[in-house]
Amino acid sequence: MGIVSVWLLAVGLALIFHRKVEDLALAGVAGVSVLLLLFGLIGQLQLGVYCTIAISLGCAIYIIFSFVRRASETFEIVFSAGSLIIAFALVFFVFNSMGRAFEYSDDFAHWGSYLKDLYYTGTLMGKSSNIHVMHPQGLLVWDYYLLKTWMGYTESFPLAFHAMVNLIALLPLLRYANGRLKIVKSLSLSVFIILTPLAVTANYGSLYADVIMALCLAMSYISLADYMRNRDLISILQIMSALYIIISSKRAGIFMAACFMITAGMAIYHNTVKIRTVLLISAGCMASSILWTGIDAKNIAMIIGGSVAGLLLGYILHNSSKIRHKEGLVIAVLIAGMIGLWFVSRIYLTTTDYNRLTTLNYFRFLFEKKYLLGLGVLPALLIFASGLVFYYFKRAESDADLDKILVASGAVISILVYIAGYLYLYISEIAPSNGEAGPYLPSFDRYMAPCYYVLFLYGIYLILEKYADKYDWSIFVLAFVACLFGGRMFEYVYTRPVAQEFHGFEHAGIVLDTDDKVLFVNEEDDVNGIPWNDCFQYYIAPSLARDIDYIRLRYYSDSPVAENGYITAQQLQDILDSKNYTYVYIQTLSDDFISAYDSLFPGIDNAQSGDVYEIRKAAGGGIECVLLDGSFIDG
User: Fold this and answer.
1) CB proximity list for 228: less than 8 A, separation 6 or greater
2) At what angle are helices 399-425 and 297-318 packed, to 10 degrees?
3) DSSP 500
4) 3-state secondary structure of 625
5) Per-residue confidence band for 476, with pLDDT thresholds at 50, 70 and 90
6) Could you report the per-residue pLDDT of 254-274, keeping only the tens digit for each?
7) What is the crossing angle of helices 252-266 and 233-249, to 10°?
8) How many of the other CB atoms lie within 10 Å of CB of 368?
9) What CA–CA distances, in Å, run from 481 to 49, 85, 182, 197, 492?
10) Quick check: 108 and 530 in contact, CB under 8 A?
């Protein structure tokens, strides 16, 4: 399993830097992804797998050597709480993913099919090269590596692999498991870390990257606050690793990274962060973007713009010596900004009825959609900002407290920019591309995940940082959070859609390859709400979705139809011949279909679900359709 090799890499780094595995596991994930990407750019992904395994074996040798030299320290790192949680969670998620079907059509028709093509072709620049250029899918490279180091291609295991990234992103919180009740705190934090990725009911059983990006973004803010306190370079490494995963997971991740750079730039206000550190992080973001999307002026401009805006704001704060309680002033401006955002959007972004409906629904969701603790995004943001004001004026006791407040203030600014940016994106691109459903924000839950996860996890961080060493009751706070999410965990565990089964090719002794082209015939619309063609094109073949066509022939628009709604048998024969189909797979049939095409498909009146016809070139020209089944192959 590839996660074992990532763990070996993390342990090796932990031994070098004298840290815990939980502090470097995310760097291991990012390092493997970058290494594989570099090999993928030269068309040698498989060679990248071998190289990564070799590096992991080198780490294993180093660990053994370290045991000989310093057994006590090595034992503590190798068998740390982070290592044990990784092992337990891996078993849990892999076992729970066995036989699980995807729950969302995009996984069948898009991400899952791209992953299969990546797995079988072994190159980013093959038929699915648009996942490299248009959709920077670093997580698919991660899935590819783990599947290649498994026992073969296994359907739906990528769900477990994505869950492990969620878990690994949160592992640094384990450092608060100390004090008199170390074991109890470790268990409590472990439960919290395992359950948090399960907090989102929708989209957890999918390959969507939004929750992973949200958790990594939240941990970037926490790591920045840590760096401002202790100047620990490991915190910078965690930030760089998290931002790479964000940028390489989705195009929107570049915008998220740009928003984070606002906070990073503001950090120069307290002299614990130098401009060169901010520029280093910004350069890392730009390098990550260029690796996936090439030199894209818009992407680079966003990252530079966020960095410059943050540096400018930090400079103003640093040199405004006449302003008292500057942090409080910034927070007050943020609250006013949230109120003003609504009015500005009403004036400038409602120029048409369609835009007006989209904008109004956007803000309705921001205020009304219930997320953590039953709050919408903007009410939660308002409460969080108000809490910062109270914390600053009543509880701030040191510069370290002010550092945390500065990062939290920057996070609120970043979220406001993110909300405003997505408002523009929805009105200009997303809503129009979704037609009539566009104004109703069908993907709002996913897109707003960074907002409430940053607030939630940063709030947990403030509580732990302030009280974890002083009071043992913090474990009960985490137990409450675990109970809050527990119901959703059980829903995920016990509500498991079963993968669809298509046995026709297997029974006929056929192994499809990427050159085969299959026509899928089905007279029903869907199964369990998922279109049949989406299920089929993912589960049946190693080829990419475009090599498998689905047409309900009565609605085929390229040819005139008869009275019964179907094209003629001759027209269908011409289509099969001209488009070089190799097989026809029968899923469900109607009496009208049988009567329309019994001359083209011999024996179709007795056809069963799963029957396969092979398309062969006839001796006199044209094609013939031959029914394949077990008895035919045996004969």
Assistant:
1) 267, 270, 272, 273, 403, 406, 407
2) 140
3) P
4) strand
5) low
6) 999 999 999 999 888 777 788
7) 150
8) 11
9) 39, 18, 19, 12, 17
10) yes
- As a whole number of angstroms, the distance between CA 312 and CA 582 comes to 62
Instruction: Give 576: exposed, middle or buried? Use CB within 10 Å, 0-12, 13-18, 19+.
Output: buried
| Gap between the Cα atoms of 210 and 445, Å rounded | 9
Q: What angle do CA 493, 87, 11 make, to 5 degrees?
A: 145
CA 501 to the chain's CA centroid: 26
Q: Which residues contact 127 (CB under 8 A, 6 or more apart)?
A: 117, 121, 514, 544, 546
CA–CA gap between residue 187 and residue 301 (Å, rounded): 44
Q: Which whole-number Å values give the CA distances from 605 to 393, 586, 588, in the listed order? A: 81, 12, 12
Q: How far apart are CA 479 and CA 331, in angstroms?
A: 31
For 389-430, the pLDDT digits (tens) are: 666 666 555 666 778 888 888 888 888 888 888 888 888 778
Nearest to 94 by CA among 26, 29, 167, 186: 167
For residues 551 and 567, what is the distance between their CA atoms, to the nearest angstrom? 11
AA identity, residue 187: L
Secondary structure (DSSP) of 515-583: T--EEEE-SS-EETTEEHHHHHHHHS-SS-GGGEEE--GGG-TTS---TTSPPPHHHHHHHHHHTT--E
**CA 491/CA 200 separation, integer angstroms:** 11
C-alpha to C-alpha distance for 430 and 434, rounded to whole angstroms: 7
Within 13 Å of residue 555, how many CA atoms lie on the same side as its CB?
Answer: 8
Per the structure block, which two tokens stand in for 371?
């997320």
Residue at token pair 């029957």: 611
Cα separation, 35 vs 135, whole angstroms? 19
